[in-house]
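Hi there, hope your week has been kind to you so far. Do you reckon you could talk me through the fold, stretch by stretch? Thanks so much in advance, here it is.
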Amino acid sequence: MPIPPAKRPALRAATPRLATTLLIAGLLGGCAVGPDYSAPGLQLPARWGAASPAVTATGEEQDNRPPDLARWWERLGDKTLNRLVDEAVAGNLDVATAKARVRQARATRRQAIGALAPSVTGSGSYTRADNGTNVSDTGDVTVSGPFDSFALGANASWELDLFGENRRAAEAATYGLDAAQETLRNTLLTLIGDVATYYVEARGYQARAALARRTAASQRETAALTRTKLQVGSASAVDVANAEGQAASTEANIPELESSYQQTVHQLAILLGQPPSALNDTMKRSAPIPTPVRTIPRGVPANVLRARPDVRLAERQYAQYTAKIGEAEAARYPDVSLVGEVTTSAAKVGDLAKSSSISWSFGPSVSIPIFNAGQLKAAVDFAQAQRDEYFLAYQAAVLGALQDVENASVALQQERRKYRSLDASAASYRQAVSLARTLYQSGSSSFLDVLDAERSAYSADDTLLTSRVAIATDYVALNKALGGGWTGTVDDRAPAVVDTQMAPRLVSLDHAGLKPREREDQGIGEAFAH
């Protein structure tokens, strides 16, 4: 409706009434439907069960101390491992993927929050028209046109969200961002544990291969000694064959151990986001198997809920899907919006702000669901079932976390007891080898005693190394179970791919994807060929 210039002050006078209307609408927008989220209360044991509590050197029980999990891998005392962990955090592809999902969740939250605000769009047009040339019966010619017309306009709308549908969506998106960040932390926890585990296993294979080579060399020396005794008639050909057979049998273990070592190093490189052979030079120099020397205080079971990112992730997902119930329930209620439009038109661009024709409209818009064959109620039922699913998943995550700590504690404790027995066993077998060789050289013992002692000593030493690896990997597993992960900062805002051509530009048919790709495919083939 056009507004004469004389009446435009009346429009300005109506502005306070309009502001009052919007304020009342904003106050009404404080309603919400659906359940409000509250953190679930779970009954947790006051103490850990199977394993005995950690005890200090003075005998004071310290099991209830919160575990110190910051950079726990550094307590293994291996600088190479520390460097590999730092490189893995920076280059691992799963971590990069989790960062991208955090950025997705952050953008989704911004979209959801944006739906709470009014939206304004502008429009403009230019029209040139000619009504044609008219010729009368008397021959008079009337020319009407051409005519120019310019128009500018603005449209505004604001969904009042009386029953909180958009607010519940924003709430769910906020919980979704929390869940994405916990997923990133959980990915880092898993990554660091895997890097430490594979590193320990690689050093274990190295040590076992070196043991096999030393043992085989010693057994070759025994075979050479036996061959010498055969030449002087104090040994039999059977003794020589047994000695050489045992040395060959020990040597046969080396390729398998080397293969396992290489596969472990390859997997370690992949965790760092590098080609499989990237760590061959780094790992080539042998190093001791990392050995933990400090006992880990496990705290109380309730600490797991605060420290484990997978438990926190499950709780955030439960909160997210609780908010989605309110979002689905609000869709069953009326939807009220305020819409407005202002348009000005003139024959010249310069007249749009002064000698123009202005029209405006303003008013509420109401949408009421009347009949939808139960679809909206079914959506609420679906959201409630999803919420139940994630609540049960949270309970399962808590129980799984408690089980992980108990299992890792028992495994580490029992493996240390096993190692003490294996260490004593290996020392006895090494002494038996020395005695058997001395007695055999003096003719006081048979060669079978030497073979049996060497075989038992090699087996005991190899088992001892395997136990050292198990102690270290159980230590890693316990730190993971307690929630030990990356405590440093992680930049989750930098994109993996930087787009440099987002502005409008002219494109060719090639860039628009409208031409065949034979030339591109040929280029790819040439790249692989080179």
